[in-house]
Amino acid sequence: METTFGTALKKTLHKADTRGQADHGWLKTRLTFSFSGYYDSKRVHFGVLRVLNDDQIAGGRGFGMHPHDNMEIITIPTEGVVEHRDNQGNHGIITKGEVQVMSAGTGVYHSEFNHLSDQTLKLFQIWVFPNKGNVKPRYDQMKFDVEAQHNNFQLLVTPIEANIPNTLGIHQDAYFSMGKFEAGKEFTYKINREGNGLYILVVNGSVSTAGEELSLRDGLGLEGISAINFKTENGVELLLMEVPMELE
């Protein structure tokens, strides 16, 4: 049973086929929250989680130099290779098993391209509102030992002030984790910061949690929990985004 901090459990369910979508030829994307030409007044953000895009980018194509400010941007490739460049002099090659973070802060220009000409790039593009404005722009990437995700939640992204080893820091009290669980497993996730909400994305497989049956690319936002139990009959890969619910 999931426990609470004294507030009623609140659920926000986003089934995969209800997401926004766009097809630009070279870019095919599914949008959990309002973005660019897709707008739904009921799907603007989940707490400080502002963007969750599920992108497929054709070989050799990508997003040319463009500006951002005051946003924490996380990129998680699931297939293929990302090439990053920005006006701060950073150049990165990011593959599956790696995660990229960028604090746009006072302002940054960057490009994100499919590094390979003969393979589709698939990635999650995630934006989080920061808890500090106008910070110095910064860039980082890290390769993770994905074996640590076997029947376990591996921390990927954490608050920069916490200085947690072997994770990527962002300017927000947020915790991102990924885990891959075998068939027939029951497991629990515990909230790191009281009051945070949890957004669950099924990357692959299926899982039962909070009275919901979730399948490929389904999303579920939970508020008012301190821990949440999961059960998978056939195996599942999950991306968990634990975020503050209050916009500062």
Structure report:
The chain has strands at residues 10-14, 20-23, 27-31, 49-57, 62-68, 72-79, 81-86, 91-95, 98-103, 108-114, 121-128, 138-143, 153-159, 168-170, 175-181, 185-190, 197-205, 207-209, 212-214, 219-223, 227-232, 236-243. The chain has no helices and 22 strands. β2 (20-23) and β3 (27-31) form a beta hairpin. By secondary structure, the protein is mainly β. The chain has one domain: Jelly Rolls (Sandwich).
Give the structure's gist in a few sentences.
The chain has 248 residues and is mainly β.
Question: How are the secondary structure elements laid out?
Answer:
Layout: E1 10-14, E2 20-23, E3 27-31, E4 49-57, E5 62-68, E6 72-79, E7 81-86, E8 91-95, E9 98-103, E10 108-114, E11 121-128, E12 138-143, E13 153-159, E14 168-170, E15 175-181, E16 185-190, E17 197-205, E18 207-209, E19 212-214, E20 219-223, E21 227-232, E22 236-243
Parallel strand pairs: 13-14
Antiparallel strand pairs: 1-20, 2-3, 3-4, 4-11, 5-10, 6-9, 6-11, 7-8, 7-10, 9-12, 13-15, 15-22, 16-21, 17-20, 17-22, 18-19, 18-21
Estimated structural class: mainly beta
Instruction: Kindly report how far apart the N and C termini lie.
Output: 31 Å
Number of strands: 22
Give the helix tally: 0
As a percent range, the share of helical residues equals under 10%
Identify the CATH homologous superfamily. Jelly Rolls
Mind telling me the C-alpha Rg? 17 Å
**CATH class assignment:** Mainly Beta
In spatial order, strands of the major sheet run 1-20-17-22-15-13-14
The low-confidence runs, each spanning 5 or more residues with pLDDT under 50, are: 1-6
Rounded mean pLDDT is 96
The total number of structural domains is: 1
- State the order of secondary-structure elements, H for helix, E for strand: EEEEEEEEEEEEEEEEEEEEEE
Share of residues in strands: over 45%
The 3D shape can be described as globular
Mind telling me which CATH architecture this is?
Sandwich
The main β sheet shows up as:
7 strands, mixed
